[in-house]
Amino acid sequence: MTRHLRVIEAGPAVTLQDLGRSGYIAQGLTRGGAMDRRALYEGAALLGQRVSAAIEMIGYGGAFEFSQATRIALTGAPMQVSLDGATLSWNASHAVPAGATLALGGVRAGAVGYLHIGGGFDVPTLMGSVSAHLAAGLGTILTPGTTLPLGCDTDDKSGLLLPQHARFAGGSIRIVRSHQTHVFGESTLARFLNTTFTRDARANRQGIRMTPDGDGFAAEGGLSVVSEIIAPGDIQITGDGAPYVLMCESQTTGGYPRLATVIPSDLPKVAQAPLGAQIRFELLDMDAAVDIEQRANAQLQALPAACQPLVRNPLQMQDLLGYTLISGVVDAHANPFERGPS
Amino acid sequence: MFENPRISSVGLSGVLVSFAADMQERANLAALAFRAAIDAQDWPDVIETASTLVSTFVAVDLTTTPYENIRVRLQDLLTTQDWEDAPLPQGRKLWTLPMCFEGSHAPQLGEAAHAAGLSEREAARDLQNARTRVITIGYAPGQPYLDAVWNIPRQSELTPHVPAGALVIAIRQFVLFTAAMPTGWRQVGQTAFRPFDPDRASPVVLAPGDEVRFAPITADELSSLQDGDSLGGAAWETLL
User: Fold this and answer.
1) Are residues A52 and A183 in the same domain?
2) pLDDT of A314
3) Which residues on adjacent β-strands are paired with residue A342?
């Protein structure tokens, strides 16, 4: 019998997302994929599997019913969560019994939550990915009634936790110079670095607007620029002077000048900055940025070893007693004497 | 102030080689030729390449390939010839797109002709005789920008809804819309061809450097092509 997940209820921006599509920039299609790529790696580590598609939920989750016993992991922005009435730890993996309903509500911090499945989703790829790229007309949002077949799960390990990574409250975002920084001039760049921004309500998978606490920004002499390539993280200055950080589902090229570019490992922090969060930008030179990226990539590779056994909150145990006390399994690489935050 | 060609990093995700600071045909040709030359190098760290209006983009992970390393390789390749005079890449296609220039399918042909200083009849003849080149693909997946026959300004108002498959024109360029959208460009034709169809074996069939001509069809012929597949009667031959 095929395992599947049925969507009973869904927020307005619930989609399947993997690492996206590479190789189509020349054809006008950006990578897309998960807004918070780190969350995908965390989910894979918690479930002991390769990075694969997860359900991405912006702002609000939904209710999901499982036809068979399934392992899940919850990562990204912590959300209100209930498994048949019992609460679950976030940034952790869990065993879900057949017929159970997982209800995910609003985010408690951050902006984008992820639901991962042991064995992943068994859905067809389109142009090499299962990611919905709504701006390109690829895939769809998940709506109530949708049934997603699940892949074969060869593992049974759950009850693992990853320490929460601090990226859900805005803060300092590291940037490097862009190929168009020079059209703004050094004094504009300096003022940009001295400005505090507020994450605006105008935000989606294409870009996130940052409202400055002072005047806006402009290219010197109102210089217009020729339409040019966009990289994820480019900070585009639009007509009214407010910057947009361009995200995974941006266009491939654009005619608004780019002041700087957010480094890849800080893009999850941009994606997770909640409405109203304060943002500052910190300029790095290329060598410092490369060093930080290399360390961030090494950290992603080390996530499986960083998983710890979930320390249960006794107050929750009554509710969970029926079905989740099977997970006394410890990751072979984890330090068994270390305990996660309770 | 703009030293050509100019090499710069694009975040940590690649390198851009720009042949001009504004749109110039020679820079576009250079970007196309230089992209093909990079592809021919088959460098293992190059993830993908693209050409924009005036630049070649080389996607490289600058956290594993030092910027200076790829910059020097690109600089060395740049000095092997004058890219603005380089021949266009091999294997380009000449497309023939059935295009309706009649009535409601070319609602602004008269206005565009007037802006170009032509009679509507002369304008229609220009379009039917045009042989244009794909300058770049962008804005939306598969959406081609083509060098146009006239240089006319954008209209000041937006037309709220121009259909998918519309041929629109402004500022020396045609665009063939992949989806319905509002635009300040003027619609002068309509095709059943869809530049992007994710369910087609090749979702995007046009490539930068390809050449395109329009085969005039009637509204009835357009209607029957629209009932067919997403190629809309488009045919191609290899350019020699």
Assistant:
1) no
2) 54
3) none
